[in-house]
Write a structure and sequence with these properties.
Strand content: 15-25%
Radius of gyration: 20 Å
Order of helices and strands: HHHEHEEHE
Mean pLDDT: 94
Shape: elongated
Number of strands: 4
Number of helices: 5
Low-confidence stretches: none
Strand order of the largest sheet: 2-3-1-4
């Protein structure tokens, strides 16, 4: 069970996971030893699944972000699994969600430019016989970017 101290620890780590246990303890009002035990338990329990570095896609030359909704033609389990595998393997896809509603999947695609997006759709979507249709929404401005769970 996650208690209030765990939530404070998780909130602090989501903002900066490079804090030392002493800094984390000061931030959440606990001891460094307690924070270390709790963080290790949260990792062991699978609550913390990765320690990652978020990158600025524009600084890396990938200035175009597109949200793509995808409708599949058939929703057989093997075909859905094939699509999931293809999206996991696609380097352009930074996020992929299987969703309810009008679309079957929502993708977040990050590429250098329109030409790179054209290559993506021609090689990953048009070539997939199970993709019925897709719609693209080009992001004009990133208003909020917090890939975290609010605790």
């Amino acid at each position: 069970m996650i208690d209030d101290l765990d939530r404070r620890i998780l909130g602090a780590l989501q903002k900066n996971n490079r804090l030392s246990f002493a800094e984390l303890a000061d931030f959440v009002g606990s001891s460094a030893a307690s924070c270390m035990r709790r963080v290790n338990k949260l990792r062991a329990d699978g609550v913390i699944i990765a320690d990652i570095c978020l990158l600025d896609s524009k600084a890396l030359g990938k200035s175009l972000t597109i949200v793509v909704t995808v409708e599949l033609d058939r929703e057989r389990l093997d075909l859905v699994d094939d699509f999931k595998r293809a999206m996991r393997a696609a380097k352009e896809v930074s996020q992929c969600y299987m969703v309810t509603g009008d679309a079957d999947f929502v993708l977040v695609v990050v590429v250098e430019d329109v030409e790179a997006f054209d290559v993506f759709i021609k090689t990953k979507l048009y070539t997939n016989a199970n993709v019925r249709k897709f719609r693209s929404l080009i992001a004009l401005d990133r208003v909020k970017f917090e890939p975290r769970v609010l605790v």
